[in-house]
Amino acid sequence: MKNIKILSFLVGLAALFAACENNDNEGPVTPEPREQVGRTVLVYIVGDAGDSNELSDLFKINFSDMKAGMEEVDYSKCNLVVYSEMKNDLPHLISLKQKNGKVVADTLFTYAEQNPLDKEVMSKVIAQTVDYFPADSYGFVFLSHSSSWVSASNNANSRSIGYYRKTQMNIPDFREALFSAFPKPLKFILFDSCNMQSVEVAYELRDCAEYFIGSPTEIPGPGAPYKAVVPEMFTETNLAMNIAEAYYGYYEKLYTGVSPISNENWTGGIATSVIKSDALDNLAAATKTIIPKYIQDKREVNRSGLLAYDFNDDANYDFDELIQYLTGGADNAEYQSWRIAFDNAVVYRKTTSKNYSGIIRRMFTMEGSEGLSTYIPNGESNSKMNTFYRTLSWYSAAGWNATGW
Predict the structure, then answer these.
(1) Which of 238, 255, 302, 367 has the most CB within a 10 Å radius?
(2) Are residues 362 and 224 in the same domain?
(3) CB 332 within 8 A of CB 325
(4) Signal sequence span per UniProt (predicted)?
(5) What's the whole-model pTM score?
């Protein structure tokens, strides 16, 4: 009996050493909450599309770059936590932490298969992150396919926020998950996902975060350059602009105006902007003085001369160009008053002169881009979109409810 006890002890000791040596892949059996730090950033990766829109291979590269970015961060003051949902793998909650002079991926929890775009699942993941990694402030990064405010469907090219095995998530549900699970408004949300800088999205989420960072059009194929972006997520002064500039600057240097031939050599441009949430109510009020005045009795706006940001849903046009068109141009006093509110809300915007679209597979001009998109309701062919549009907060706040649409 004594020999059996000794043997059991030795086996247990060996298992303990093995677990320690393999800490880059697996975490402790019973994770312990970390003491409160300055900032926790949760990266939410939805990579398993379930069809040809698969993103897992790209996201694995992004994950590796996040680890490299954490090498430049003071780990004593921050947490970078990743919820990873990839093809041919169970979902995990992973802490990228510094240990013995290097950054390791500590897998804290492994979950049964679950839909990461279900609002209850997302809420629980966020709440678990907050419980184990409390902080003075929080940030959120979202990686997947997306298509701004558009209602969820099973169309692979018509995505709202996220795309998991042909399922999607509506923006109001996304808002509910964030608002219910985080203990305070986020410092920022970085949408590493296409078409998310729309005024409809920002207004719906305005009480969830201080700043929104993303693109009104398609993002570069490889996504954010996380080696450069991660250190900026933990800065204080000009936080959102720092993130946006790191993202934009990386691809601006690679830009040639020529369609990219691969994600490894992205020459196809970039557009990035930052929206300040506490200025959105004033922007809505300014917009409400214009929309119902110039659009009455279900008038259709001629959109042919306006900059379109997407080539599938017909849902995203340059917001500034719409207001200029309605009021008669930049010299109009109403437009100038509205533009003040707009500039207070869109505090950063940069774009290369052209961008590449994977939908139409060619470069397109970004002339006139001001970094924020909007929907322009039109005829009965888009009746489903128009119906869903009426459920968004922006619809009434901006005066669309008085236009007949």
Answers:
(1) 255
(2) no
(3) no
(4) 1-20
(5) 0.91
DSSP character for 159? -
pLDDT at 157: 47
Check residue 15 and give its pLDDT: 38
- Answer yes or no: is 27 within a domain: no
Q: Which whole-number Å values give the CA distances from 11 to 1, 51, 240, in the listed order?
A: 15, 44, 50
295 and 250 inside one domain: no
Q: Report how far apart the first and last C-alpha atoms of the chain are (Å, whole number).
A: 82
Last residue in a domain, options 247, 278, 309? 278
Rounded to an integer, the average pLDDT of 155-183 is 85
- Whole-number percent of the chain with pLDDT over 90: 83
Q: What are phi and psi of 270, to 5 degrees?
A: -160, 150
Helix (H) or strand (E) holding 142: strand 135-143
Least-confidence region, from 2-11, 59-68, 286-295: 2-11
Classify residue 285 by burial, with Cβ atoms within 10 Å: 0-12, 13-18, 19+.
Answer: middle
SS (H, E, C) 172-218: HHHHHHHHHHCCCCECEEEEECCCCCEHHHHHHCCCCECEEEECCCC
